[in-house]
Every structure is written in C-alpha cells, then in structure tokens.
Amino acid sequence: MRIRFQFLVLSALVALCGEVRAAAPNFLVIFTDDHGYGDVSTYGAKDVQTPNIDRIGEEGMVFTAMRANCTVCSPSRAALLTGRYPDRVGVPGVIRTQPENSWGWFAPGVPTIADELGEAGYHTGIIGKWHLGLESPNTPNERGFDFFHGFLGDMMDSYTTHLRHGNNYLRRNDEVIEAEGHATDLFTDWSIAYLKERAAKPDQPFYLYLAYNAPHFPIEPPAEWLAKVKERHPDLDEKRAANVAFVEHLDHGIGRVLTSLDELGLTENTVVVFSADNGGSLPHGQNNDPWRDGKQSHYDGGLRVPFLMRWPAKIAAGSKSDYAGLNFDLVPTFLELAGAKSGAPEQLDAVSLVPLLEGKPMPEGRELYFVRREGGKAYGGKDYHALIRGEWKLLQNDPYSPLELYHLKNDPRETTNVAAKAPKIFNELSTALSRHIQRGGSTPWQKP
Predict the structure, then answer these.
(1) Do the Cβ atoms of 77 and 60 come closer than 8 Å?
(2) What is the pLDDT of residues 307-331, one digit of tens each?
(3) How many Cβ atoms sit within 10 Å of the Cβ of residue 319?
C-alpha cells in the first residue's frame, strides 16, 4: 500500500512538472531599426497608420517612458542581448563592415539571453539584422542562437539587392545564401516559417528575436504602398510620404506574424514585445514627436522608443505603464518568466519588469546610463555620454561640447539647460557618470 502511495505521489509530481514545463512562455521580440516614437499610431502619430503594432499594446501593455540603450544600432543590440550596458560588452559604437570605421567588438564569453534561455531548454532563433560581428567568434550561432536566418552586416544599400558595399552578408546559419524580394517581406516569411516549425514541437518553448532592418534608410517602400499613402495624403512631403509608406509596409509584415501566432495556437502563451533600437532619423523624414531631436542624439528624440508588450495569459488588455526603463530590461524579465537562472546575475545592469506585469511597484533609485563612440570629424573616435537619475538628465551630444543638465519633470522637451543653476545636482551626476565611464573602460572595444 505504501509503495503504491509513493508511486502515486511521484506520478503526480511528474505530471505537475510536465504542466509547469508546458506553461513556460514563448518569447517573440520584434525589434525595428530607427523607428521613431512618433511613427507608431499608439504614440500619437497622425499621418502613419500602424494597426498591427498598435494591436500588441491594445491586447497587452503600452509603456510610455521606455528608452533604447543607445542612439544607434549596434550598442542597443548588444545591450538587448546581454542585459549589460553596451560599453561593458565591448560595443560602445557601431560595428561596421569596414574595419577602419568600426567602433565595437562584441566581447566573447559574455553570455547572451540566447545562451541563458538555451540552458533553460529553449530553442532560440534570430531572423533579420545581426549587426554584432561578421566572423567567428561573433556570429549568431556562436553567441547562443540555435537558428539564424538573416544578414550579418550593418545595413543594406538596397532592400531588394540585400548587398552592402557590394558584399553579400545574407546567411542561413553559417551558409551564404541569396534571396529575392523586399527584405521586410523576406524576414516576415522566414519568421512565419520558424513559428510553424516551433508549433510542430510544442514541448519546447522558443525565443525568437525578429530584427527588421526597416525603417532604416534607404527609405524604400514598395511602389504600391507609396501610392496608397500619396492617395490618402496628397499634400504630404515626398520624404515624409516615403517613410510613412515604409512604416506601414513594415506594420503589415508584423501583422502577418501576429496572424501566424493566432493560426498556430501560439498567441495565448507567447510574450510579444515590440520596440526599436533608437529614435528615428530626422533627415530621412522620420518622426520622434513630442521629443527633441533624433537618432544619434542623447536628447529624448534619439532615445525614447515605442515599447509594447502582450501576453494574453498574464497581461490584462489595455494596460499602461509610465515606468522609465530600458530595452535591455527584457533580459532579466524573460529569464525570470522562463524560470531560468542567469549565469552571472550580479553583472546584469538591466532590471526585471516582472513586478509591473504583476501590478506591483518597481524598485526606486535607478540610474540610466548611455554611451556612444563614433569616428569622423564630428567625433574623432571619441565617445559621449548621458545619465538619467530620477527627474534629472545629464548629457552630451558630441565629445567636444560641455555637459548639459535638464530637469525632465519640469522640462520634458529638454529646452532649458540648467547646468549653471543647479551646480550640486550637476556635480553629483557628473561624478556618477565618471564611475560608469571607468567601469566601461575595462572592456576592449577593438578586435585584438
């Protein structure tokens, strides 16, 4: 009798573990490129229509005060994948296909979220833009991803030729491939194919990082999409019309991915997050309203990004949060939701957003740190920085200008530099910023 009782208890535990395992959420991060805060309908855009991106927030949570980890591509992506500030993983600037103009080296050995989730039993995939290295040891499959279908480089000279400086960086895992079609459509198709494969293996949860290169310039919407925008807005500036069409074509692709989740029965227990690597590029007709400036700038137009999260199993539709966090907070958030343990949690700079999802307050007293290194005459290979602490923001927008100080509560548009009027705060933030710079300086940012 006792043996039978022990057997029944053991069977119940095994069944319970199986249920817990099956309940582990899937993760889908949709990450766009140079996507302005004002180029998503949810955030007040009037001329651009993004019903599919909006759907993520309508069916989940809209974050109104999230920022990217950098004003440009590679550092934001390095942070998003590691949960650490970009200079602490060797990527303070853009990793480019031309070595003489490359300002980062993704530190080998630093675990990525793909490494951590892989250890927890997840299948991990990246589709689209990598932008963290062209060769070993910094290819996606060597940095934790089971599957890669996309391009290694920094950008494409055309969305239809897929080349960069005449070179083909398209890959399926480590295989050089060629493809026909608009890059946005390709990445959408490849993502749907990945989801179908994972749906056929329901016992293993997945993490998919879908990194579109749109709406990064060159602004190349398909002709039929541009025609629709011009018909709807005949008086719209040509440059703006092209960007609106580009974003709406991208939104359509995102809609196809969301529909695929629905059709495959994956929607309920898949955490979907939409965000971008930095603010939009003003010279290319992109919109960051209501924030000042754009890409490359430490004013909030360069840093504030759309951030929407949906998880029908746990997040109430129509939720909203004004928490001021950073994109890389997804790393500890996902690890916590997956029941995974980070190999070095004490080294993470990111903070889990799980309390927000549970209706609880977040810890207070957090600093947000930003860095960017760049070459050329305007920057000289040097870096420039920003720091936010509470209501105060200290920043530079090039290495040669003095630091500026803004009180974000009273001056959210960052119009009045109060550095001379608040010397105590200025000195405190300057000292704190110096500590961040020193810590980042311990990690090499050039290939050995």
Answers:
(1) no
(2) 999 999 999 999 999 999 999 999 9
(3) 17
